[in-house]
What we know:
Elements: H1 2-11, E1 21-33, E2 44-60, E3 67-71, E4 77-81, H2 91-103, E5 110-116, H3 126-141, H4 148-163, H5 169-176, E6 180-182, E7 189-190, E8 197-203, H6 210-223, H7 225-248, H8 251-267, H9 273-284, E9 289-293, E10 300-305, H10 310-319, E11 324-330
Parallel strand pairs: 3-5
Antiparallel strand pairs: 1-2, 2-5, 2-6, 3-4, 6-7, 8-10, 8-11, 9-10
Helix pairs in contact: 2-3, 2-4, 3-4, 4-5, 6-7, 7-8, 9-10
The protein binds (3R)-3-hydroxy-3-methyl-5-(phosphonooxy)pentanoic acid (PMV).
Amino acid sequence: MGGLIYFSAVRCADAHQINYMETVSAPAKIILLGEHAVVYGQPSLAVPLSSLRTYAEIVNLPKGSGLKVVAADLNNQEFYVNSASQEIDSPLFTAAWLLLNHLDCPPPDATITLHSDIPIASGMGSGAAITTALFRALLLALNQSLSSEKLNALAYEVEKIHHGTPSGIDNTVIVFEQPIYFVRGQPIERLTIGKPFVLLVGNTGIGSSTKSVVSDVRTLYEANVEFITEKFNSIGELVRSGRKAIELGDHLNLGKIMYDNHQFLQEISVSSPSLDMLVDAARTSGALGAKLSGAGRGGNMIALVSPDKAPTIKNALLEAGAVQVYQTIVGK
Ligand code: PMV
């Protein structure tokens, strides 16, 4: 019995009692094909964007201080988590308690400072990346480990608080940091990239709430179940063909599939004039394919481009109103 108590005390102890500072992180993500339909059971493809990340820096505090979370570039949030703290309406606060309760550990004596390079509300999974980075920081500060599966399940619980009925694709691609073929509620399948491809990610600069776009799609679906189900089925077909094209390195076909997917997203009313302008600019300047990525109505579009045309297409996107264009190679 004594042994058990001793073990439990050590299990939850702060990892380091002397001064230390460490940083953990989590990546952004891009949905290649299948957003929205994925909420209704269709497959979807997503890849991590490892060069764009959320960081969590952990610095220990004197014993008994409790946990301080600082997120200067996330609405300037700063709060304490200790036995005396009042519940506050913040996904970060909820996430911290969720993990501590799961581990059955008190808050560590540490400051965790979050910093994110991922644009917020832009379809790049900033919320799931922030949650994942915070979880990793807490685990380190408490000298604990969790399997990626468990971490993913907990991150999904936080996503539900943010988004209502998320499919789970964001947290999954971010926690595992691998290209994935994702079907809600099914085991994750790794997506094999036959030949690396170049994507341009054009940010409209317009923020969009995933929760409200997903809820508008739900309203549309409930009013026209058959019609919208047909659209989702067609998107699912495109995703299956897109997976094959990616595995075979058939970028011409993948591009065509992306344009078709964008059209279905327009038909379910989640595109917007600024997204359509970027997709048109990509098309007329020679992109192999382009579509909105994520919830839509703002956020990002992605364009599949051949490397030699990337600079021209990037300029065309900036001229068509993109506030930022990232270039990334998938599968390298
Ligand atoms: O906007 P994001 O990056 O959170 O992507 C949302 C993707 C949706 O398919 C629209 C919703 C979901 O939960 O899968």
